[in-house]
Design goal:
alpha+beta, binds thymidine-5'-triphosphate, 14 strands, binds magnesium ion, four-stranded antiparallel sheet, five-stranded mixed sheet, elongated
């Protein structure tokens, strides 16, 4: 089913909260951030103030020079936190698939909600109405088939906007926009791209992937996908798993190292594939062992660089296993591997070296084959010993006790 994702963002949030509390401020250039003679920057500027060139992050002294008639206020965080909680509570009434981002912004998965609201557009109008009636605030909403396009749409629709990008129109919608409008492009990336003569998202979208990777490393691929309106990240409610793990109990307790390693490899691949499906990378790998007498241990290792490859998960797990088994007391009853500390790859800008990039590509190729032909369609030499032990299905090996994610 085609996804319908909303991105909802309040207009001039801090300022608007102040305007609700003090109606005299409405319709005026207002800045929240502090007195203009103080050191500090603009946190929020009303749209009237933006007409004078004011924006978040601008030094207050500059803001005062550009617009001396603006009302400068200190602001008060508890008021914004309160408004934010009420805003999120309204959104939660509309869909449980809600991912708050910061105080005044959220993604909402509205897939299939047409039947309830008549249309997704109608649902968005209802959301705007409730936010206005109950909080006095304006919410701008973007609707699209994926997060990145929905976000660009809400931003473009401001203030008090509602913009829907039809399926299939993602690329043509993004193409004419300046590259700075694309999430993930900061000031530095913008300068590099402009230096290369790339000014619009459309120009970025046709830039060869290899060139993008040479400038931006692993993030190059993300930029390429975003620029083409491709983004399969899910809307993740805050309660969503912060860790992924797979474990299994052996039919018979074992000391067989090759079986332990083969199982560890298989479980690592299951974890890795789920991780990549969620579009995340990890910083922490944990091995779990339960011995015949039910003593259970977990051993963790923090990676120096975030990763989402099967190999890194397995290698780290193997090192932990080796260390543990030197003091082996009893046969092993259960083995498990988990990852935690999940992060968005886009935020990690470290450049990957060539071998790490090759590994990433290999994993992606394997994922594609597995998605198409089943998990055991392609196997690494390491997991082959499992062939004689566990029954195979399209979904993978059927372990004695199913491996579950926490
Ligand atoms: P934004 O949603 O980025 O900005 P906004 O709501 O003021 O304006 P709009 O969405 O209509 O463009 O940020 C939300 C709040 O976060 C903002 O009101 C104040 C705070 N904020 C800062 O304190 N510093 C900043 O640099 C930014 C960008 C925001
Ligand atoms: Mg906002």
């Amino acid at each position: 089913m085609a996804r319908q994702i909303m991105h909802i963002d309040l207009d001039a949030f801090f300022v608007s909260v102040e305007q609700v509390l003090n109606p005299e401020l409405r319709g005026k250039p207002v800045v929240v951030g502090g007195r203009p003679d103080r050191r500090g920057v603009v946190a929020a500027a009303s749209y009237e103030a933006r007409g004078f060139g004011l924006h978040a992050g601008m030094p207050l002294t500059t803001a005062y020079r550009l617009c001396p008639q603006a009302v400068f206020i200190e602001g008060g965080f508890p008021r914004y936190r309160d408004a934010s909680q009420r805003f999120m509570a309204i959104l939660a009434d509309f869909s449980p698939y809600l991912e708050p981002v910061g105080l005044d912004e959220a993604y909402l998965d509205a897939t299939g909600f047409e039947s309830i609201y008549g249309s997704i557009h109608r649902m968005a109008v209802d959301i705007k109405q409730r936010v206005k009636n109950e909080l006095g605030l304006c919410a701008s909403i973007g609707i699209a088939g994926c997060k990145v396009v929905a976000k660009v749409a809400s931003e473009l629709s401001k203030p008090d906007g509602l913009l829907e990008v039809a399926r299939g129109d993602e690329r043509s919608f993004l193409a004419p926009l300046p590259i700075a409008k694309l999430p993930g492009i900061g000031r530095k990336a913008e300068l590099i791209l402009r230096g290369l003569g790339i000014n619009t998202i459309g120009e970025l979208s046709v830039m060869p992937l290899s060139a993008l990777k040479s400038y931006f490393g692993a993030s190059g691929e993300l930029l390429h996908r975003s620029a083409n309106g491709i983004d399969d990240r899910k809307v993740e409610p805050p309660g969503a798993a912060k860790s992924i793990s797979r474990e299994t109990t052996f039919g018979k307790d074992t000391r067989d190292h090759s079986l332990l390693k083969a199982t560890l490899r298989y479980l690592s691949e299951r974890v890795g594939s789920e991780l990549r499906q969620r579009g995340k990378q990890v910083r922490c790998v944990t091995l779990k062992l339960r011995y015949a007498d039910f003593t259970t241990i977990t051993r963790s290792h923090t990676l120096s660089q975030a990763s989402h490859t099967d190999q890194t998960i397995f290698d780290t797990g193997t090192k932990l296993l080796k260390k543990e088994l030197t003091q082996e007391k009893q046969p092993v009853r259960l083995i498990g591997i988990g990852v935690s500390n999940l992060i968005e790859p886009g935020r990690q800008l470290a450049l990957l070296d060539a071998s790490a990039q090759r590994l990433e590509q290999l994993n992606k190729a394997i994922d594609r084959i597995r998605n198409k032909y089943g998990f055991t369609a392609i196997q690494t030499g390491r997991t082959l010993p499992l062939k004689d032990i566990f029954p195979e299905t399209d979904g993978g090996y059927t372990l004695h006790t199913p491996s579950l994610s926490r």
